[in-house]
């Protein structure tokens, strides 16, 4: 939780009391590997911070599953569009490992914001991070090769290749696992 306290006090410039007040509203949640944090069709009524473990977000259609985000230690996790709109989500968030999280409900977060507008800084920080990650991914699909997208994911999610199976990374990149293996081999040979 030190990283969350750092966000409050050093990055956002809030007094430690704001972190303490926010922290009081958090509740711990543990997931086993392959357990869902949320599934398609449910309304997301929380934002969580990952204390340990790794999760993936994916959408599903008749052709299969398509990863669209990963959540590593110290990342905020939520079906964020659903959280903001309080409408059902179209994604699933699944634990890839055993996971420990701390969650705050939509209602409790809103109460904090209503009580003190300084909590809007926290909401903006979370929104900005989601927005930037989504924009980087969208732009990479429109502009970059698969090899360049692989470099982007390495920067966006440090250490991901040690935490997430290759076929999930390939899905996120929009390529087949065999193509990812070839890209990695070519990158290694060209070094």
UniProtKB/TrEMBL annotation:
Entries under SUPFAM superfamilies matching the protein: cAMP-binding domain-like
PROSITE patterns (alphabetical): CNMP_BINDING_3
Leader peptide range in chain numbering: none
Pfam families assigned: cNMP_binding
Record InterPro entries: cNMP-bd_dom (IPR000595), cNMP-bd_dom_sf (IPR018490), RmlC-like_jellyroll (IPR014710)
Source species, domain of life: Bacteria
The protein's name: Cyclic nucleotide-binding domain-containing protein
The organism of origin for this protein: Flavobacterium hydrocarbonoxydans
């Amino acid at each position: 939780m030190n990283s969350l306290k750092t966000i409050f006090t050093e990055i956002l410039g809030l007094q430690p009391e704001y972190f303490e007040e926010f922290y009081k509203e958090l509740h711990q949640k543990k997931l086993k590997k392959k357990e869902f944090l949320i599934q398609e069709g449910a309304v997301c009524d929380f934002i969580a911070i990952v204390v340990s473990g790794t999760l993936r977000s994916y959408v599903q259609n008749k052709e299969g599953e398509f990863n669209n985000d990963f959540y590593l230690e110290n990342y905020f996790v939520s079906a964020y569009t659903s959280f903001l709109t309080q409408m059902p989500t179209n994604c699933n968030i699944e634990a890839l490992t055993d996971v420990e999280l701390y969650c705050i409900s939509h209602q409790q977060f809103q109460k904090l914001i209503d009580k003190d507008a300084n909590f809007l800084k926290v909401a903006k920080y979370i929104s900005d991070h989601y927005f930037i990650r989504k924009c980087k991914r969208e732009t990479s699909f429109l502009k970059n090769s698969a090899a360049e997208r692989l470099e982007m994911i390495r920067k966006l999610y440090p250490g991901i290749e040690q935490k997430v199976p290759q076929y999930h990374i390939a899905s996120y990149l929009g390529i087949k696992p065999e193509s990812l293996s070839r890209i990695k081999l070519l990158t290694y040979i060209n070094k």
